[in-house]
Amino acid sequence: MEPEEPMPSAGYAEVRIVAASPESARRVAEVLRSRFAADEQRSYPAHSGGGTRLHLTVDTTRPAGTAPSWLVASRTSGNDHDRTDES
Predict the structure, then answer these.
(1) CA distance 53 to 72
(2) Cα separation, 84 vs 36, whole angstroms
């Protein structure tokens, strides 16, 4: 049994993202940050078999402002995948 984590303050949510790749986890975090103000994300290995765990705290009482500079710098061009189903 895992130890119980402290409850976040009212209006805040602790978000844990588990993904096969760091890029997938960052993309999910980016969507959350586009909607809510959030603190710096923390990234950890998911388990010995690979994967990534990403933790961040979002403030549900404040809308997102401008993207932090580290987020803008880490964005990809958006052309990573060819999409044949889009027109």
Answers:
(1) 21
(2) 32
